[in-house]
Amino acid sequence: MRKSSFPIWCKLVVVTAALGFWAVRIEAQPRIIRGVNGITMPAPPVASVQPVSDDYSGAKINDDYRWLEDAKSPETRGWIDAENKYTQQYLSQVKFRPEIVKALTALERVDVYSVPMLRGGKYFFEKRLADENQASIYVRNGWNGADERLVDATKLSADQNTSVDIRDVSEDGSLVVYGVRQGGADEVSIHAIKVADRKDLPDVLPSGRYFSVSLGPGAKGLYYARFTPHQGTTVWLHTFGTPVEQDVRVFGGEYRGAKLGELDLIAASVTDNERYLMIQIAHGVPATRDDILVKDLRKPDSDFVPLIYGVEGHTRAANIADRFFLLTDVQAPQDRIVEVVPGGDPSQWKQVIPEGKDVIDSFSIVGGKLFVTRLKDVKTETTIYSLAGQETGRISYPGIGSGSVVYGRPGEAEGFYTFESFIRPQTIYRYDIKNGHSEVFAEPKVPFDSSQYEVTQVFYLSKHGTRVPMFIAGRKGLAQDGKARLLMTGYGGFDVAMTPAWNPEYAWWLEQGGFFALPNLRGGNEYGEPWHKAAMFGNKQNVFDDFFAAAEYLIKNGYTSPEHFAIRGRSNGGLLMGAAMTQRPDLFGAVWCGYPLLDMLRYQNFEFGRAWTTEYGSAENPRDFAYLVKYSPYQNVKAGTKYPAIMFFTGDSDTRVDPLHARKMTALMQAANGGDRPILLHYSLKGGHSAGVSVSQLVEDQADELAFLWNETGASDPPAIPKQITLGGTLSLARNFR
Questions:
Q1: Which of 20-29, 443-452, 613-622 has the lowest mean pLDDT?
Q2: CA distance 69 to 400
Q3: Are 494 and 536 contained in the same domain?
Q4: Of these residues, 689, 690, 694, 732, which one is catalytic?
Q5: Catalytic residue flag (residue 451)
Q6: Catalytic residue among 571, 618, 653, 732
Q7: Same-domain check for residues 693 and 547
Q8: Do residues 259 and 120 share a domain?
Q9: How many domains does the chain divide into?
Q10: What is the pTM of this model?
Q11: Chain segment 497-516, per-residue pLDDT in tens
Q12: Which end of the chain lies in a sparser environment, N or C, as judged by fewer CB atoms within 10 Å?
């Protein structure tokens, strides 16, 4: 077993570990950790070293902190408590943190809405008042009716960390199906409430990971797709008034003799005309292929018939009456839209919207029209077509930002769309299909003067000459002299396009006189599937190289300098942060690494990790191990390196990316750090990957992040807090993504 190497300020002593066996423990010699602006800290908490060695096809890999994978052990819980106290000791010295809380409270504490659903002449949506911690479910009878609270989320838990969301509404608007989530966990329980008397049905689906929930014909029951770890997804029918134990399995296990397993993620939905049950099988995350099947519910004994099956590519479906349309990159890397018939094959597809230069990001059918959203150099353009593919109009968006397609139903005369950017909170518009008129449903009134800021787009060259776009936001006229703080984020994976979106944290940063930047790294869908594939599996290093090239461009062009450079990322973006801190610690002053993937040799063994092997590969495969071990952050921490200031952020309720990644990486980097910059773990006992924590908790967590990043990127006066701060206004509900 190899011996670990550590900085000279450590010494080895043998102690008896709490688990009852001998372990090697690192005891830090007295050492001072120095934050910026006068913050001083003692050495971080000590984590015992209990080496475990793994054999990957002959390659021996040591893991000194395997014991921290056990979240429930007393030893791990004691270490977490010590780390949280250590982090709080740091944050208590950031004198301007209360002002950050005040400013963020103003930006977050506004009325928020979700996009409405129109059923039976009634509008259903989620809404949170400015002084509330959670959004409730509302109904409005007619466009000019009053908003009536249907489900009050504020009364569901004492700590206000229980949230609700609409899953489906019956055709006549008499029944609402909704989910209840605890904290930030992915799991929810499913409930149904009668609109007329505000009474819940006794039928409750227990807490679990539901990929879809859809009311059946006549709202007599629910079709739901539930994922079971290490087994897979199955589709069930629950008939109202019967025990859940009597639910009937409708689909799962196998199809046409092919076994469906954990990597085959299934969703089920009933079409708007209540005739068909549509099944989508995504093989992996992202999917290597999408199979889409339909069953005629008017013929109970009929089989599922494919719309597309066994063809590699990404596909989404939409339906109007008995017609089916697919958005697919099959034989079209930039995507196209085709009309298909059940049971047909690609040779029989009828092309409606051909592939073009710009990738098609999404589409919808509302009011008998096709709404097609493209990304033109990552900027949204939405074109309206007839079902035959003839262009009939466009939706205009105000400036550089992210616009949505029109959400609604094929037979309705109206729908809704959204627009937002880094400097403009998301606004929801009502759209009249017949006359093309738009009017505001929910318009934000946050204390942020958008007219004082601007968003620009630049292009830079990455390694090997790849041209990459990047958005930059800042106050108009802000000097490019290298003195400004800059906050940059990125993602680069899973076929997800990163478009400009409103975030109160970014708004706060801009208000202080900082720049914000978002490079569109390879791995997303900004330029179609080729852009995605350029950063999958063994090409993952391209994501990191694109990110580093963006940083070098910003420094070279005077937007900032390394000591003033802050970066943040979460989930797959947390992996990006791990690569940044281990590969290019010289480029950045401070790093916030949220809900991260960091041990890429073991990620597939925990929570939802197995599903991501279609993006990253698996170290269980010798070919994949060869490239994973080269970039996996946990295996590339080097003792004695002077790392930038780092805050790892995770929580017990993250049931998607196991918090063990952040725990192990914190322990390892604190032991290996050869510099005197703080390395902290912010470990929430409530938060998780999904949305759901209270606004009060959210503001506190955001303030911790911003206090750390701002403080560690420059010795200067406290940030400038806006003079006038008021509560109120309206904002649309933020989407929880990535």
A1: 20-29
A2: 43
A3: yes
A4: 689
A5: no
A6: 571
A7: yes
A8: no
A9: 3
A10: 0.91
A11: 999 999 999 999 999 999 99
A12: N
